[in-house]
Amino acid sequence: MNKLDNKQRVKFYQKGTFTVGNRLVDKKARSVQASMERSNAITSGHRACQGCGEALGARYAIDTVMRVTNNKAIACNATGCLEVFTTPYPETSWQLPWIHSLFGNTPAVATGIAAALRVKGKKDVRVIAQGGDGGTTDIGFGCLSGMFERNDDVLYICYDNEAYMNTGVQRSSATPPTARTATTMPLGDAPGNVFGTGKSMPLIAIAHNIPYVATATVSNLHDLETKVEKAMTFRGARYIHIYVPCPLGWGHASDITIQLARLVVDCALFPLYEAEHGAITGSTPIRKRVPVEEYLRPQRRFAHLFKKGAIDTLRIAKIQKMADENIKRFNLLRKETESFDGVTGISLKESKYT
Amino acid sequence: MLEQIEGSSAVAKCIALSRPEVICAYPISPQTHIVEGCGKLVKSGKLKNCEFINVESEFGALSVAIGSSATGARTYTATASQGLLFMAEAVYNASGLGLPIVMTVGNRAIGAPINIWNDHTDSMSMRDAGWLQLFAETNQEAADLHIQAFKIAERLSMPVMVCMDGFILTHAYDRVDIPSQEKVDAYLPPFKPRQVLDPANPYSIGAMVGPEAFMEVRYLAHEKQQRALKIIPEIAKEFKDVFGRDSGGLIRNYKLEDAETIVVTLGSVAGTIKDVVDKMREQGKKIGVLSICSFRPFPKLEIRNALKNSKRTIVLEKSLAVGFGGVVANNVMMSMQGTGVHVYTVVAGLGGRPITQPSLEKMLEVAEKDKLDDLTFLDLERDVVERELKREHASEKSGPIAENILRDIAGLEEAKR
C-alpha cells in the first residue's frame, strides 16, 4: 500500500496527522509535487473553487502519470467541473494532450485513443481517462463497463465528490444516504438522500476482473501517488477511485478539505483498498478510529442530522452501521504490523449503503 | 474485379481497401453484414494494421471512433436506425470536433412502432448534425462512395455518412466492380490529420466555447460544407480518372433536358423511378429524374438550375417531417424560391412499404394534370386509417394504435367494429 519500508512506517508518522513529511522519506519515494521537476500537468491559474479536492487529486494523479511515463501521456476528460475549470479558453491548464468529448463517453474515447496508439506502434504513450462521480457511476457507466470488459489499456480515474457539482449539486448514484443535494432535499420524513441506494464503482470494477483497482483520497497523497504509479505498471484496464471533498457542494469550510478526506477514511465510510485481477489484495488499516459524527458534523449537507435539540441519532446510527460494515468487509481495524489477510464476508451483490 | 456479391460485402471490401486503422463494431440490422465483413478481413489478416473493436453500444462505437480519429487513425464505423439515434450526441460531437470519421448508415425506419425495414428517417434525423451525407443509388455506388468518403472527409477534416438503403442495397446480391488495392492506394493518400493528440505537441481539444466565439465556430462548419460543394465533384472526377466510372458527385440527372415534370429523390428508389420514366416517355410524357447524392451539403444551386425549366417538381422521399410534410421537399422548396416551379411532396416507402411502378405511374399521371395534392402519401390505406380514427373517436380507451391496426388488417372482427 505504502512505499515506505516498515521501519519508516513506524518511525516517521507525524503526531496527529498520520501523514509523512516529504523530507522524512527516501528520495525515491518523495512526492514529485515538492520537486522542481514536477510536470505541473495541470498548471496553476485554473478556476477551481478554493479548497477543491478534485483539483488537488487530479494534479497529483496526472503528475504521477507524467513522471512514470516520461511525459508521454494523453488525457481524456468527461464533462464536469475538472473539464470546465481547467479549460476556460484561450487558457488551458493542461500541459499534456487533452481531449474532452462528452459527459458519458470518456472511457470509450480513451479506448479509441489507446487503439490508435496501438495500431501506430506507440507503446510508450499511455492513456488516462477521468471524470467525476456522475460521469463515472451514472451517465458514463455503460461505456466504462465496456472499457473494463474489453480490458482496454486505459487508466480511468474517478474523482468522487458524491454529487453533480458542476450543475449545482444534484444527487448522483455516489451520493451517500441523508446527504442534502438540490434533488435530495432535507425535507419530510426521510430528509436528504435515502438509505439503501447507490453503488460501489470500485467493487463493480473489481467484478470485471481488470488488472488493477484502487481507492484513494486526497488526505493521503503519498498513497494516491503510489497507487497511480502502481496502476501504470499494468497494461489493460485500470481504475482508481479518488475521494475528493467539495467545499461548495458539501457546505464545508475550504480549509478542511484534507481534514474531511482524512476523517472519511478514519471513520471507515471510505475504505482504502486495492485489488488485482478480481481479488482484493490489500486495505489500509485505520490508525485512529473516529465516530461518523466527526466526519458528518462539519458538512452542511448533513446539517439536518444535527439540529439543536433534535439530533437524528437514528440515522446517524444507521450511517455508523455502514462504517462498521466496511471495517468488517475490508479488515480495517487490524494492527499496523498485521498483514492483510484477505477480505471476509465480501459480497459483490451487496450495496455500498446497506 | 467484377463480383456477384452482397452489397454489405462489397462495402466491407472497399472499406478494407481504404486501409482504415480502427473499426468499431456494434450490431444493428441492417448494417451488421458490413462490420462482420470488415471483422473477417481484419481477423484473417487480409486487412493489416487495423484494430477491430467490439463495443458496448452505438454511443460507444462513435465515441471510440472520436478517440481514435483524434489520435490520427483513419476510422470507420457503421450503424442504422435506432443506433444512429442512440449515438446522436456523439454524431454532433464528431463533426463539432472536425474529425474525419466515415460511417455507413444502412437506412432503416425509426420506432415506435419498431420496424427494421428501409426508409430514410434515421439519416434525416441527423441532417443538421454537421456531417456530410452521401446517398448511394446502387451497390456499385455504395462501394465507390466509401472510398471517396475517406478522401472527402480527410480533405475537409469533417465526418462523412454514407447512406445506403437497408436490405434493398445492403442485402442485395448484385454485380459490383471491386477495385484493386493498387488503384485505391493511388487514389486515396494516407491520412494526414489536421489535429492530433500527441505528447510531442500537446494541445487541448474540446474546450468550452462561449457566446464570444460559438457563432464563428458554427459558421465555419457551414462554410466547410459550402466548400464541400466544390470538393465532392472534384473527388468524384478524380475517381472517374482512376477507376473509369461515374460515381458520387452532388446530383445525378436523368432525362432532364426537355422534362416538364421532374421527380427528385434519393437512394435506390431512383432506379425504379427511372424505369417508370422510360416507360412513360415512350408514351410521349416528358418526365425526368433528379437523384440527390449529396444531401449534406445540399446542392441548392445545382438543383435550382436543373429544375428551373420544369413545369413541376415532385419530391418523392422516404422520410416524413411529422406535422409538416417532406424533409427533402422542404430543402428543394427552399432551393426553388422565386422560380415559380411548383414543388409537390410525395412521402413513400415508409418502414419498407414497397414503392411499385404502377403506383408511381398513377401518381405521375395525376401530377401531370396538376391535380396532385401538395402532400401525398403514396399507397396509404385510407380506409385502415379511417377505421382507427373511428375507434379513437368511439372510445377514450381505444388502446395502442399500432396493435389496433395490425389486428384490423389481419381481418379480426373485433377491430372492425
Assembly category: heterodimer
Shape of chain A: globular
List SSEs of chain A in N-to-C order: HHEHEHEHHEHEHEHHEEHEEH
Shape label of chain B: globular
CATH superfamily of the largest domain in chain B: Thiamin diphosphate (ThDP)-binding fold, Pyr/PP domains
The CATH architecture of the largest domain in chain B: 3-Layer(aba) Sandwich
How many domains of chain B? The number is 3
Structural class by helix and strand composition of chain A: alpha/beta
Provide the CATH architecture of chain A: 3-Layer(aba) Sandwich
**Strand residue content of chain B:** 15-25%
What is the strand arrangement across the widest sheet of chain B? 3-2-4-5-7-6-13
Q: Which topology of chain A does CATH recognise?
A: Rossmann fold
Q: What class would the helix/strand composition of chain B place it in?
A: alpha/beta
Strand content bin of chain A: 5-15%
The overall strand count of chain A is: 10
CATH class of chain A: Alpha Beta
**What is the CA-based Rg of chain A, rounded?**
19 Å
| CATH fold descriptor of the largest domain in chain B | Rossmann fold
Characterization of the model:
The complex is a heterodimer of chains A (354) and B (417). With 354 residues, chain A is an alpha/beta fold. Chain A has helices at 6-11, 53-68, 81-86, 106-119, 133-138, 141-150, 201-207, 221-231, 247-250, 257-266, 292-296, 313-330; strands spanning 73-77, 98-100, 126-132, 155-160, 212-217, 238-243, 273-276, 279-283, 306-307, 310-311. In chain A, 53% of the residues are buried. Chain A starts with 5 loop residues before the first helix and ends in a 24-residue tail after the last helix. The radius of gyration of chain A is 19 Å and the shape is globular. Chain A has one domain (6-330): Thiamin diphosphate (ThDP)-binding fold, Pyr/PP domains (Rossmann fold), CATH 3.40.50.970. In chain A, strands 2-1-3-4-6-5-7-8 form an eight-stranded mixed sheet, sandwiched between helices. Chain B has 417 residues and is α/β, with parallel strands linked by helices. Chain B folds into three domains: 2-243, 3-Layer(aba) Sandwich (Rossmann fold); 251-377, Rossmann fold, CATH 3.40.50; 382-416, no CATH class. A seven-stranded mixed sheet of chain B has the order 3-2-4-5-7-6-13, sandwiched between helices. The longest helix of chain B has 30 residues, at 214-243. The termini of chain B are far apart. Chains A and B meet through strand 1, strand 2, helix 4 and helix 6 of A and strand 3, helix 3, helix 5 and strand 9 of B. Strand 2 of chain A pairs parallel with strand 9 of chain B, so a sheet runs across the interface.
